[in-house]
């Protein structure tokens, strides 16, 4: 490629200068237009709520929010699968517990996120190569190759790596880069001498290049591979050889890949390049997942715990915990997502607050999007979420690294203020009953009835004097003015005095008695007086 650039440097200098001038004047380049037209795949974690938020509110907010996001053609929303409640991760740094010498059963290692990302990039690169966008295909495929090369010890299917190398050679050769394409194809043929290319898929030019590469293939020396420990299983270029010490013959000259695995050990890999006819050998030592302590006793590393589920991270805001990034990246790689969207709904006295956090899967950065404020009656829900969706769409294509989340977000500390308890009312005074002293009963003693004389008894009964009550019961039209006024007792005439007539009566009675005596004396013997006086 460098030779070609020198040869045609004078020819391409003018277009380069024109392109540079257009970029300076502000006309967007083709790469910018393509970046604007690309689609962002977002893994949506369900909306979580605080303690003071009613249960039905998050579901309604999520329904509107998802609907608005899905309207945007540049965003493809992916739901969080139910089986992704927890993603396995590294064990915490804790003191292992001593175990007996019995063999320990360790959980299988989880696939590394780099391998998942490499597979996704590999698929995108193949699609671009088939669409004859070779420059973009090479850029994507090279990234996939580097990721696979870093994790070859953990890559169980070696054909994935061979497939990436194959499409790199296809993109080079069909894109017009014969020199680079020939070197890349030679590496593929070294690993897969039996390779056959389909002209309908790769083109006649590539088929011819494959045939030429096979003719240049030369047989290499004998290769000896030793695994430590001896129970390690050996693979060369993805093909199983055996365990312990293995010898491989008939390999082509060039670069080959050795992988060794064993139970209780971390897998390991090695690159072996054969040249000439001298025998080659390599030793691969595995690192134990067990920790050896005093004498022959062993301690098993604690089983790798599962990280919190993504929903729990969104509910607690524990984004700074060790393992959060790996958990989010693992879930995103399984769904082939570019971003992960977290959201949390809090409440204050006057409104709901929806906080949204966006994670870029490529670099593990988490940023905070400006919050949306929703009335407690949800009256402005659509308007608030529409503004939030526009801010989110802008952040997907212009990632706001000035809003990186570096600690627990403040929205998780929002609370509805509890009312200050009113002071208890003072107890009402207890009325102490005051004993009522009853006055002694008034004994009304009736005057003894007057002794009536024989004369008084013979008189007709006097008319009863009307009482106070009888007077009050008189009709209102009673002629009170015509009635004779009552004369006070002091003004009663003397002839109406009772004592006067008593005296008169006594005198008359005395006279009658005296007369009777006189008359009796005349008809009887002297010296005897017979009479009876009654008062």
Keywords:
Rossmann fold, 535 residues, 16 helices, six-stranded mixed sheet, four-stranded antiparallel sheet, alpha/beta, Serine Threonine Protein Phosphatase 5, Tetratricopeptide repeat, Immunoglobulin-like, 37% helix
CATH homologous superfamily label of the domain at 36-87 and 305-413: TolB, N-terminal domain
Cα end-to-end separation: 176 Å
CATH class of the domain at 36-87 and 305-413: Alpha Beta
At CATH level 2, the architecture of the domain at 36-87 and 305-413 is 3-Layer(aba) Sandwich
Summarize the structure.
The protein is of the alpha/beta class and about 525 residues long. The protein has 16 helices and 17 strands.
List the helices and strands and how they pair.
Elements: H1 2-7, H2 9-25, H3 30-37, E1 40-44, E2 48-49, H4 56-71, E3 75-79, H5 113-130, H6 134-150, H7 159-174, H8 178-191, H9 199-202, H10 204-216, E4 223-228, E5 233-236, E6 239-243, E7 245-248, E8 254-261, E9 265-266, E10 268-274, E11 280-285, E12 287-288, E13 290-292, E14 298-300, H11 310-316, H12 324-334, E15 339-347, E16 351-360, E17 365-375, H13 381-397, H14 454-458, H15 468-472, H16 498-523
Parallel strand pairs: 1-3, 1-15, 2-15, 4-11
Antiparallel strand pairs: 4-7, 5-6, 5-8, 8-10, 9-12, 13-14, 15-16, 16-17
């Amino acid at each position: 490629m460098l030779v070609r650039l020198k040869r045609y440097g004078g020819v391409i200098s003018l277009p380069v200068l024109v392109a540079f001038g257009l970029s300076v004047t502000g006309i967007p380049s083709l790469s910018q237009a393509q970046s604007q037209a690309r689609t962002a795949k977002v893994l949506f974690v369900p909306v979580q709520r605080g303690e003071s938020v009613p249960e039905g509110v998050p579901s309604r907010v999520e329904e509107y929010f998802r609907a608005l996001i899905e309207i945007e053609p540049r965003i493809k929303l992916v739901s969080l699968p139910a089986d992704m409640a927890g993603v396995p991760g590294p064990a915490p740094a804790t003191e292992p517990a001593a175990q007996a010498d019995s063999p320990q059963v360790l959980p299988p290692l989880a696939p590394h996120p780099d391998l998942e990302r490499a597979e996704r990039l590999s698929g995108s690169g193949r699609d671009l190569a088939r669409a004859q966008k070779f420059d973009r295909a090479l850029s994507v495929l090279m990234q996939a190759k580097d990721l696979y090369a870093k994790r070859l010890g953990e890559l169980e299917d070696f054909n994935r790596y061979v497939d990436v190398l194959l499409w790199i050679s296809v993109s080079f050769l069909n894109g017009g880069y014969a020199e680079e394409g020939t070197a890349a194809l030679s590496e593929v043929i070294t690993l897969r001498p039996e390779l056959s290319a389909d002209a309908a898929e790769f083109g006649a030019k590539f088929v011819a290049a494959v045939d030429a590469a096979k003719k240049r293939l030369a047989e290499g020396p004998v290769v000896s591979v030793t695994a430590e420990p001896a129970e390690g299983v050996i693979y060369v270029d993805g093909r199983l050889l055996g365990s312990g010490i293995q010898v491989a013959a008939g390999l082509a000259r060039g670069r080959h890949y050795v992988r060794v695995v064993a139970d209780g050990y971390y897998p390991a890999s090695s690159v072996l390049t054969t040249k000439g006819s001298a025998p080659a050998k390599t030793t691969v030592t595995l690192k134990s997942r067990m920790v050896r302590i005093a004498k022959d006793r062993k301690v098993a590393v604690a089983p790798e715990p599962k990280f919190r589920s993504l929903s729990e991270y969104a509910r607690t805001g524990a984004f700074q915990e060790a393992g959060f990034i790996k958990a989010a990246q693992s879930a995103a790689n399984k769904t082939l997502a570019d971003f992960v969207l977290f959201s949390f709904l809090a409440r204050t006295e006057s409104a709901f607050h929806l906080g949204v956090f966006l994670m870029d899967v490529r670099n593990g950065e988490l940023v905070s999007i400006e919050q949306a404020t929703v009335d407690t009656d949800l009256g402005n829900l659509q308007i608030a979420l529409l503004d939030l969706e526009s801010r989110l769409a802008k952040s997907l294509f212009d990632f706001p690294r000035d809003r990186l989340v570096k600690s627990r977000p403040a929205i998780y500390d929002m609370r509805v203020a509890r009312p200050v308890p009113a002071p208890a009312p003072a107890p009402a005074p207890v009325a102490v009953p005051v004993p009522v002293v009853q006055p002694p009963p008034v004994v009304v003693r009736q005057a003894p009835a007057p002794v009536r004389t024989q004369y008084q008894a013979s008189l007709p009964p006097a008319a009863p004097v009307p009482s106070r009550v009888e007077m009050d019961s008189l009709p209102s039209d009673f002629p009170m003015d015509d009635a004779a006024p009552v004369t006070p007792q002091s003004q009663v005439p003397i002839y109406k005095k009772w004592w006067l007539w008593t005296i008169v009566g006594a005198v008359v009675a005395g006279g009658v008695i005296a007369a009777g005596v006189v008359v009796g004396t005349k008809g009887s013997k002297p010296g005897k007086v017979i009479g009876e006086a009654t008062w």
